[in-house]
Amino acid sequence: MKLYKNILRFVLLMLVVALAYGGWYAWRAFPIISGYGAKNMASAVYLQHRNPESVLKEELGFFPVSKGTYTINPEDSSVTGSVWGFAKRKAIYRTGLGCTLVNDLSEAEIRKQHFSLPVIPSQNVDTIAWPYGDKISDSISPVVDNKALQQAVDNAMQMPSKKGDPAYTRAFLVVYDGKIVGERYAPGFNKKSVMIGWSMTKSLTSAIIGVLVKAGKLDPNSPAPVPEWQHTNKEKITLKNLLQQSSGLDYTENYNSPSEATNMLFKRADMGGFTAKLPLKYEPGTIFNYSSGNANILGRIIRQTVGDSIYAAFPYNALFHKINMYSLVLEPDASGTYVASSYSYASARDFARFGLLYYNNGVWNGEQLLPVNWVKETVQPAPANKQLRYGYQFWLNGLDDKDPNKRWFPDAPADMYFADGYGGQNIFIIPSKKLIIVRLGVRTVDENKYLKEVIAAIKN
């Protein structure tokens, strides 16, 4: 009888522990699930004009996000997410701004924010030659094996994810020597469709930092102008440390469980401010730690440097509209700062235009938009990154994990560098091959395979 009671007590104790842990996990994780789903559903429906069913199947079909419920409200252009009725999170759409999660501030306060955005020129881009418009030349360079290239593009579109399930590749585009030579879209998408860049947004942010460096407003080697860091142990963090992901801040980029990354993106109004307050864990410049938080601090620095009166329009007026990147939408957090780490939407052609800007060393239509040495500095490996894979918010074709005598992408040249986003959003820039390759989709595929096939089709 005594043994039975002891066993019963143990079982009850374990049940209490399990319930307590479940409640603790739900309290931390459910808002992230509902926030992630609400934000992505809202952007897909109101910005991309997508069918909600396809979003549930493709973007939101994985566990645990699939356990959420997402309610679309066309009357106020919003989506509310929840998990079994708990942890409701709302994302709102605003014209020209895309979608924003309601966090910390009230919805009314967020909707009252004023953004003075530039007007997109009214012109028939189909009659203007690429890259300043969308008119594509029919002529193909003799060094391009067109049959092999088109087969490579088709293969890339049909390639399964690394796990073997559908990758949902939406766009694949190849630019050779400044001209579009290969282009495919999935059903329902076309050259005007805007698609999420995810962490390719970090590379866009780096370019805006470059614009401010050229204007003499910022210096990569100076302490990052973050007000909270003055007279603290963080005042030694330089702008370059942030660009090279070696700030030393105590930050974890983990999306499989609650972390600084998920708390920042789905629970905070001021994402850059949230990260700036994190403690210093390492000496700045000594440890490479990939961090969306560093990028959002950079985004906050941009806002504070240019001032609120021109901030909303600044990235467009200073750079993106100058390179004819008119489809681009930068989405702000609830505080009104663009989410510099993650939330940009643009067409495949516009992402290719951005790649072309870097390919041409920051020059567009004869104008030097970035500092003369900016691209050269961008592709210098961060000293703290032992694999030599990271520069100024761009990835480099550094060393292989298992064999440091090999490149990360063994079938691509060593000079390749690229913007990279979650799910395999990529802008590959290969100067030695005169190539820019853009791939946009939902799940990561074998990038080395499609790079190899595209490169093989160019006989230069």
TrEMBL record:
Keywords: Hydrolase, Membrane, Transmembrane, Transmembrane helix. Pfam families: Beta-lactamase. Residues 171-441 form the Beta-lactamase-related domain. The keyword Membrane applies. Gene3D superfamilies: DD-peptidase/beta-lactamase superfamily. SUPFAM superfamilies: beta-lactamase/transpeptidase-like. InterPro entries: Beta-lactam-related, Beta-lactam/transpept-like, Diverse_Enzym_Activities. GO terms for molecular function: hydrolase activity. The chain crosses the membrane at residues 7-27. The keyword Transmembrane applies. PANTHER family: BETA-LACTAMASE-RELATED, BETA-LACTAMASE-RELATED DOMAIN-CONTAINING PROTEIN. This is Serine hydrolase.
